[in-house]
Amino acid sequence: MYGIALDLGTSGFRAQLIDLETKKVVRTAMTMRHPLPGGNVIDHLDFALEVGEDIANSIILDAVSKIIATFGVDPTCIRKLVVCGNPIQLSLFQNSEIRDLAFAGKNMQRRLGVENVDRSAKVFPASDLFRGVLNLPNCEITVPPAIAHEIGADALAMMIETDFLNRKEVSIVTDYGTNAEMAIKTGDRIITGSAAAGPAIEGQGISCGMIASPGAISDVNLEKKRIEKDIEKDCWRLTVLDEKMEGRPGALIDPVTGETVERGEIEAVGITGTGVIAVIALAMETGLMEQPPKLPDGRLILGNGIEITDADIAEAGKAIGAIRAAQLTLLLEAGVPFEELENVYMSGASGTYVDCRKARKIGSCPDFSKKAVQFGNTSIALARELLLDESRLGEVIALARTIKADHLMMATSETFKNIYTCELSYWTEGMSLKLYKKFFKMYKYPPLPGPVENAVMEKRASKDIEETGNVPVEIVEDVGITIEVPVEGCIQCSRCNEECPENALVTIEKNGSFFASCRTQDCLGTSCRRCVRACPIKAIDFKNIAIQNTSGLQKGSITGGVY
Ligand code: SF4
Ligand code: SF4
Questions:
Q1: Do 353 and 203 meet the contact criterion of CB atoms below 8 Å apart?
Q2: 495: number of Cβ within 10 Å
Q3: What are the residue boundaries of the 4Fe-4S ferredoxin-type domain, all occurrences included (predicted)?
Q4: Is any atom of ligand 2 closer than 6 Å to the C-beta of 129?
Q5: Contacts of 230 (CB under 8 A, 6+ apart)
Q6: Which CATH architecture has domain 482-547?
Q7: How many CB atoms lie within 10 A of CB 49?
Q8: How many CB atoms lie within 10 A of CB 131?
Q9: Which comes out higher in pLDDT, residue 120 or 535?
Q10: Ligand 2 atom with least separation from CA of 495
Q11: Other C-beta atoms within 10 Å of 527: how many?
Q12: What is the domain partition of the chain in residue ranges?
């Protein structure tokens, strides 16, 4: 008998097959992308609202089925599936209402006749949802409770799985990811928020980027190499994730010339978000980058064809800036002086693999907190706990009811807007820190304190998923579908596919008509649309999507207990 713990993340899914008798993890699998188009939850919402939630739900269930297929067990032996994620991912998975999450503001919701949805814990037969997709006759699905309709199970997981809820001092917890969930606790008051950081924080949207997975550079460190009797050279030692997701010494390289000075134990194939943060911190520390985003000759080379460019620094900076702006906004809105921030808790793959000192150096983690603690993937940890201990669900439901949290919408916060504008200018336009601080003063925000030099930094997890089983982590590559957009009058100029940053799109001809054919998992969605802008005859309109390859997928509806 098996159970599956599933984390539906904004940049990809992670799942673990667990033997319910031995309680051991048998296998772990992950996708490299989210199956829906887009680099953030808003793109996923837009896609679902545009093409219909049934289709979005079908694509997600198809991806989950492919993950389950890689486990190689008879689906009738799967008894439990516990799924965690943010409210948007969990709603899309269950094919339930999402419009209350799409339209901010009570007035707008009233105009559209949209009610807030109750996102209490649910337990229901898997056959209700996976009907026609995967035969799971003996499986029950458990969805943990949200704290409020827009504060999801993933936020609950990051609070429960860290020390956050027990702290009396001012503490911030952040689940570092594409949609960075975060919360501040001051006394008994909790305010939650989230920053749509974008996929760069996890390595996507970076030219040689990849999600934290085997072969990804997760860190870089300075190392001296003696090249002649009295001459030492500054080189960078790569840390590369192996098949068990542990960091191992990679090559020693000269980042300016790209020369491999010494081979490593493991070859890198790309760089993940924490690796990019390390590159930025090290480039600033060693003087290779005086002011973002300008690198020497516009790039640094990490060997094996892996480069970080000015554009990558700007892209990563936008994500770092969004997280930093949201954390500062939470502090300001809670009325807490910056100096009173005691604890910072970091979770998620990006919160685990990052070198905390470097994260503090570049601002993705406040450098004025007195303590920083790194945890792993708290969503999958909670899903695993609920899978292995049935009584835990009752406890978690009771706990969720006791948490009185307010949610701060960053999208409508003037404070967030002001600080994020400063961050964007710093990371992408070369605005100096001096000017940044001037703007802060102009907005009448208190000055940012200097870094706490002797801060306590504690790492409570060495991997984002502590136990992955005895076989290498399985990567599920092909999780999306193909969508086709009719492009009437297409002159076959190829500008759309040349402009596409992800090579997601080609134009094809069928029975004398032209279509733009696009892989959902590769497309960056509504936040991109470069293909649309590039077309000289304005032929591409993603509202006219025709779906390919979804035959056999059917809409499920959910019955069962709501707690
Ligand atoms: S250019 Fe078009 S197809 Fe390519 S990622 Fe952007 S929106 Fe998607
Ligand atoms: S840019 Fe427009 S006209 Fe050119 S190939 Fe693409 S769809 Fe056709």
A1: no
A2: 16
A3: 481-511, 514-545
A4: no
A5: none
A6: 2-Layer Sandwich (3.30)
A7: 14
A8: 16
A9: 535
A10: 1
A11: 16
A12: 2-154+383-389, 171-200+314-378+404-459, 202-309, 482-547
Q: Which residue has the tokens 């090290």?
A: 282
pLDDT above 90: residue 261? yes
Q: What is the per-residue pLDDT for 69? A: 96
**Ligand 1 center to 205 CA (angstroms):** 12
**Contact of 301 with 257, CB cutoff 8 Å:** yes
Distance CA(523)–CA(530), nearest Å, equals 11
Alpha-carbon separation of residue 354 from 7, 359, 444 (angstroms): 20, 7, 32
For helices 53-70 and 41-51, the axis angle rounded to 10 degrees is 120
Decide which of 2.40.10.120, 3.30.420.480, 2.60.40.1180, 3.30.700.20 is the CATH code for 2-154+383-389. 3.30.420.480
Tell whether ligand 1 has an atom less than 6 A from the beta carbon of residue 210: no
- Is residue 535 within 6 Å of ligand 2 at its C-beta? yes
Matching CATH topology for 2-154+383-389 and 171-200+314-378+404-459? yes
| Atom 1 of ligand 2: nearest residue by CA position | 535
ipTM, two decimals: 0.99
Domain 171-200+314-378+404-459, CATH: 3.30.420
Ligand 2 atom with the shortest distance to the CA of 494: 5
Q: Which ligand is nearest to the CA of 532?
A: 1
Among 81-85, 121-125, 386-390, 543-547, where is mean pLDDT lowest? 543-547
Alpha helices in 95-226 (DSSP H): 99-102, 106-112, 126-130, 153-160
DSSP element (H, E) containing 456 = strand 456-459
> Across the beta sheet with 343-347, what order do the strands follow?
405-407, 189-195, 180-186, 171-175, 343-347, 371-374, 456-459
How much distance in Å is there from the Cα of 511 to the middle of ligand 2? 17
Which residues, in sequence order, are CB contacts of 443 under 8 Å at separation 6+?
415, 418, 419
- Given a contact cutoff of 8 angstroms between Cβ atoms, the answer to whether 239 and 218 are in contact is yes
**Mean pLDDT computed over every residue of the chain:** 91
